[in-house]
Specification:
With 89 residues, this protein is α+β, with helices and mostly antiparallel strands. The chain has one domain. It is 46% helix and 18% strand. The chain has three helices and three strands. It has a three-stranded antiparallel sheet. Strand 1 and strand 2 form a beta hairpin. The protein is globular. The chain starts with 6 loop residues before the first strand and ends in a 5-residue tail after the last helix.
């Protein structure tokens, strides 16, 4: 999967927020607030282009002191939320 075009991570009043920009995000109408780790995952997913839950979990383990199974569960939950609001394809 990959991040959908038209969605960007911005710093708004000290909060990391995914927001829609441009024609691709006309129907979005939301702001998604992310914690530090979720924002890091968003940026990592963007730099990877195509990504999977496993590839993001492995990257998370390299960056943070976390066990792979825990990382997979956390990444799966975050990516699931992104899929619900259709910011990934």
């Amino acid at each position: 999967m990959k991040l959908k075009d038209g969605f960007v991570l911005r710093d708004v009043c000290g909060e990391k927020v995914i927001m829609g920009e441009g024609v691709g995000a006309l129907d979005f109408g939301h702001l998604l607030c992310l914690n530090e780790t979720a924002a890091w995952l968003w940026e990592k997913a963007g730099s990877m282009g195509d990504f999977t839950v496993d590839s993001l979990a492995e990257a998370l383990c390299c960056e943070y002191d976390v066990e792979l199974e825990r990382a997979k569960a956390d990444v799966s939950a975050i990516v699931g939320e992104w899929q619900k609001v259709k910011v990934v394809e």
